[in-house]
Design goal:
Elements lengths: L4 H27 L12 H25 L1 H11 L4 H4 L2 H37 L4 H31 L23 H32 L3 H52 L14 H26 L5 H8 L8 E12 L2 H6 L3 H21 L3 E6 L2 E6 L8 H25 L7 E16 L4 E6 L1 H16 L3 E4 H6 L6 E3 L14 E4 L1
Parallel strand pairs: 4-6
Antiparallel strand pairs: 1-3, 1-4, 2-3, 4-5, 6-8, 7-8
Helix pairs in contact: 1-2, 1-5, 1-6, 2-5, 5-6, 6-7, 6-8, 7-8, 8-9, 12-13
Amino acid sequence: MRRPPFVSNLGLVVLGNLLGGTLAFVYFTYLDPGGAADAPLAGWADVAFFVVTFAAIAVVGTWASRRWSRPLLAAGRAMAAGTPAPAVLTPEVRRLALSLPYRLAAISAAGWVLAGALWSILWPWLIGTFSVANAARLALGIVGVGGAVTTAFTFFAVERAWRRTLPVFFPGGVLGDLAGAPRLGVQARLTAAFLLVSLLPMVVLGALATSRARAVLGADPAAAEALLRGLLLVVAFVVAVGAVAALVLSRLVARSVAEPLLVLEAAMARVGRGQLDTTCPVVSHDELGRVTSGFNQMAQGLRERDRIKAAFGKYVTDEIRDEILAGRVGLEGETREVTILFCDLRDFTPWVEATPPAEVVRSLNGYFAEMEQAIRAEGGLVLQYIGDEIEAVFGAPVGRPDHAARAVAAARAMRERLGAWNRARVAAGQPPLAHGIGIHTGTVLAGNVGSADRLTYALVGDAVNLAARIQTLTREVGADIVISGVTAAALDGRVPLAPLPETRVKGRSALVEVFAVL
């Protein structure tokens, strides 16, 4: 069974501190035990004290780490058992997930401070070699040098390893507002790494040169020569260890910045190719993490835009949808010339009374689907369904110079579709349906109409009323498609028409010129 990631991180911390502690022990007990040529080397007692103290500090650090991480471990186990993430990932758990590298680094630093106190004060006092100068030298080397480098290594190594698990606690890829979560910015981590790899080696070498120079001043020639030979060995050790530490830390810091950027770059490329379901894992709480979170929110916005676009496309044609979403169509209201189409089922009420409601709804939905396809195919917009009636417009909200011809073409396609649909109904043992279509071209006010909470795109004007009245004429004149004289004039003779007697419609005193579409 695979170990939990948190346990693996603890092992990484213990290993890093063991390596740092061993180097510090070797240096202060064998290479530079006291700054003098005749300083005694470490014995078995020193080795035993080092083993016991390191084991004790490691046990205490592991206990402290597990104590504060209990909610984190419980959340991981719950999600592994199938508990939904929103029920487990509380703000506190997510803050703990972000703070794990910081807490383990802090525990590591505390361990080095404790080790410095034990080796610079307690152990020299126990063996009778305590002095303030030597205690200061040991404390500077153990805490200031070894502790700083090992703590930095712990932080960056654990952070990099933890990045494989951290996205589990942010499944949506969005950090959100997590007050109290620690954050080490990119500039701060680069500055810290620079100081560690450049300043600390100079401090160590300066302290070594100073202490050996003082020892040489009061030593005889043989002792002075021994001190200088020892200094060369110590300098070589410091340079070698410092170079390795600088290389490791530099590589860890560089990867901590470069790897998230490379992942983000790849995610941006996928979005650019249209893969809007792409998400980028959140792996930190610094500028990179916020940029990644912003990218995920942007991708989510693009996905929502596409969903809205697809839903909007069910109400209008793709061209009209794109024009409106691009902001090239004014919806606040504008006067324009359009062609209005009204379509109404004949003998609808008797049919409804004689038909089960479920069958009525199925038939209406099938009829409306057929008619709307014909309207949309010619760039028309269905404004509303009123019972069994359809109101559509051509030439708005996107203006078209041939809106009259398109409306008539749509009406003729509706006639053909109704015929095919009726043949299928008759074959299924259902009665055929008939409708009448009235079309008129005129000037209207087009725009959003409604309340502050609900709007609809509508047409207002006498042309709308006239189109509706012409539709009612279809029953009287015995034609299924009737158009006004204004619409007929706009067709330029391209559609076969049959003139009908001029008639007076309700609400108008003047006679209306109408034509039947053959």
